[in-house]
Design goal:
disordered N terminus, 21 helices, binds zinc ion, 24 strands
Length: 681
């Protein structure tokens, strides 16, 4: 096997990447030419003239997400003091991430280097490539974002929803267009084929040479929208020399070529025509080609279509606007008008192919959808395979639909779904066309990356010329070497339903503890003297039933009394005065929580979350050392002492009140206005 020939950026001649028709001007919309960041290559100019001084150096490639996983693809290209980002996606939560809606990569490195960011390029509009951008724009400035029209239309919606529309400039690009990002990066967009329409691979010209990032791809020679993979351009780069290929590894374990999207068409057509009644079809909202085919078949078979789910509606609207989905306006009818059509003339297109809890299909399967109830004769078609983490949710949905009487068509053997990602032979073709010197498999779980690296090796890329990396690894690429250098923070940032900020690890741990073990709330009214004003109130939520509540409450009461009599004085900062401000109530609360956690772990073999609410109660002001301490007042007395205040919640007057309004009883601060006269009387 011949070794890969060493190439450098000097091997490039710009003529090799000029548009096929000789000049970018002829195919470039006029509006795009005014952008100073765009450069049209002319045959006489070498690429390096546009992009740097040609000095050797190190290009850092830092993936913050997308490795050892499918999701949140986010990559940084850094040369000297300039950063270009490529895609910024999100992932969805796994089991145990309670209340989390979105998972983002740790953006610490970008925040620390925000001054270097010159812009971003986007390969296509899937959530795992654009879903994080609106969140990042709240934290860092990205001066300009270049991407395909469909992806940019979807991104603009997301940015508007997040209120960050004015934080960056969105610019659309077409096939074979060049954009300059900063002074170090010049990028050509190369049309590729994928499950999403308007998708690109990119050739990134750097001072060291050309790096090709495939984006997500498969080689689909009969694309649904007629936009062919620009193999000629890839081959041209391969001919002249590609320093590094960064390539999608999703299906690296699967032999052969991934079939064309079009191969699904006759199978869907057959399934649809065999459906005796209503058809309910679900696929990824973003699978524009699939949606296009489903609508086309519906139109052919004389079915009207109702679309359910916001993401599906959005994608169809944008894809129709841009010409990627073609159908007549009267194909669509609102859901409430479906009753006017016979069942065999109805198709309902919905989200929920992955069993997402809030999606239309999941709610339909649970009988919770207001307008659609499954009935005998319905046919449900799942035109998507579950992403590995979603398998259980999907099979549960199928079970529920069948129990309601639907005929459910699903599974790989039906030919109603093909992947949008290339398999082993696609990978071989990509490597053969681009002939890279160095190779980096990305977009995949670890075993997929390893498999992809083996494929590259079988095609002659030496093992020393490739790296298998993890999120956060800093890949240092020179003209002669590739290696893994430092690491940058690479954890995750979590966003919950509030979407107002990042959920910390601690908050997530607390949610997990709450979900797994439940919550014990203990409310105690305590005098400044350290005595209990009344018996503590204990409330349990979601705690395993084997714990005897009466025994638990007894133990807690005894532990509390014991703690106060032995250790309360430690929290008194000024024993002579002993006013409210002279006691560290916050410290007392924390120590009590630890004490009760220990008690529960030791005697009840449980680790529920414990929340202690300490209500400070002023002791009678006449307390003096030379007189016996007064007997603790009854609960009723204690309550009347605090009910007169404006800020204190009524504590201990009524156990139910404590339980249901526990949070209101949390001391809001140490300073508390009180009517001491009523206590003293
Ligand atoms: Zn994709
Ligand atoms: Zn992807």
């Amino acid at each position: 096997m011949a070794p890969i020939k060493k190439k450098t950026s000097n091997d490039f001649k710009a003529s090799s990447i000029a548009p096929a028709n000789g000049s970018a001007n002829q195919s470039t919309p006029q509006s795009l030419l005014v952008n100073p960041n765009r450069t049209n290559f002319s045959a006489a100019q070498p690429a390096t003239q546009f992009i740097g001084n040609g000095k050797p150096g190190t290009l850092k490639i830092i993936p913050l997400g997308g490795l050892h996983e499918i999701g949140k693809n986010t990559c940084i290209f850094e040369y000297e003091d300039e950063i270009m980002m490529l895609d910024a996606g999100l992932a969805f939560p796994t089991d145990g991430m309670h209340g989390i809606q979105i998972v983002l990569p740790d953006m610490t490195y970008l925040r620390d280097n925000r001054h270097k960011i010159k812009g971003m390029i986007v390969t296509h509009g899937h959530e795992d490539h654009i879903g994080g951008i609106a969140f990042h724009l709240k934290q860092v400035d990205i001066p300009v974002i270049y991407g395909p029209r469909l992806a940019m239309a979807l991104l603009a919606d997301k940015m508007e929803e997040a209120g960050v529309s004015d934080r960056t400039e969105i610019r659309t690009v077409g096939p074979r267009e060049f954009v300059r990002v900063g002074t170090k990066f010049l990028v050509e967009f190369i049309r590729n084929t994928h499950s999403m329409a308007d998708s690109f691979s990119v050739a990134i010209h750097t001072p060291l040479g050309v790096v090709i990032h495939t984006g997500d791809f498969k080689f689909d020679h009969t694309p649904v929208d007629g936009e062919y993979f620009d193999l000629q351009r890839l081959a041209e780069y391969g001919e002249k020399g590609v320093l590094c290929l960064i390539s999608d590894s999703t299906n690296a374990e699967i032999p052969g070529f991934t079939p064309s999207e079009k191969s699904v068409y006759p199978n869907l057509e057959r399934v649809f025509s065999n459906a005796p009644g209503r058809l309910l079809v679900t696929t990824f909202a973003s699978s524009v080609h699939r949606v296009n085919m489903i609508l086309d078949i519906a139109q052919k078979q004389g079915r009207v279509v109702s679309v359910l789910g916001r993401s599906m509606l959005n994608t169809i609207a944008h894809a129709r606007n841009l010409g990627y989905v073609k159908c007549q306006d009267d194909l669509f009818v609102p859901i409430h008008e479906l009753q006017n059509y016979p069942d065999h003339k109805v198709l309902i297109l919905t989200t929920g192919s992955q069993g997402e809890p809030l999606s239309a299909m999941t709610r339909i399967s649970k009988g919770e959808h207001r307008q659609i109830k499954i009935r005998n004769g319905d046919t449900v078609v799942l035109s998507a395979n579950p992403i590995p983490g979603n398998t259980i949710a999907v099979v549960n949905t199928i079970d529920r639909l069948m129990m309601l009487g639907a005929n459910v068509i699903y599974g790989r053997d039906k030919g109603i779904h093909v992947s949008g990602h290339g398999s082993q032979e696609d990978h071989k073709l990509m490597i053969s066309l681009t002939r890279p010197k160095f190779f980096m498999p990305v977009h995949g779980e670890h075993r997929m990356l390893v498999k992809h690296a083996e494929i590259a090796q079988s095609l002659g890329v030496p093992a020393d010329n490739m790296v298998i990396i993890e999120n956060g690894d800093v890949v240092e690429l020179t003209q002669d070497s590739i290696k893994i250098g430092d690491r940058v923070p690479s954890g995750i940032e979590l966003v919950d339903a509030s979407r107002s900020g990042v959920v910390s690890d601690r908050a997530l741990r607390e949610r997990q503890q709450l979900a797994n073990e439940g919550l014990v709330t203990i409310a105690a009214s305590v005098y400044n003297t350290g005595q209990l004003a009344s018996d503590p109130q204990v409330h349990m939520s979601g705690v395993v039933s084997s714990i005897d509540p009466a025994k638990l409450k007894g133990s807690i009461g005894a532990t509390l009394k014991n703690f106060l009599s032995n250790r309360f004085e430690r929290f008194v900062t000024n024993p002579a005065r002993r006013s409210d401000d002279d006691i560290d109530w916050g410290g007392l609360k924390v120590e009590l929580e630890r004490e009760f956690q220990r008690l529960l772990r030791r005697d009840f073999v449980g680790t529920p979350q414990v929340v202690v609410l300490v209500q400070p109660i002023a002791a009678p002001i006449s307390v003096r050392r030379d007189r016996p301490a007064p007997a603790a007042p009854t609960a009723g007395t204690a309550a009347s002492a605090t009910l007169n205040t404006n800020t204190a919640a009524p504590v201990a007057a009524n156990a139910e009140a404590v339980d249901s309004e526990a949070s209101a009883a949390v001391p809001s601060g140490r300073r508390r206005r009180r009517t001491t006269a009523s206590v003293a009387s």
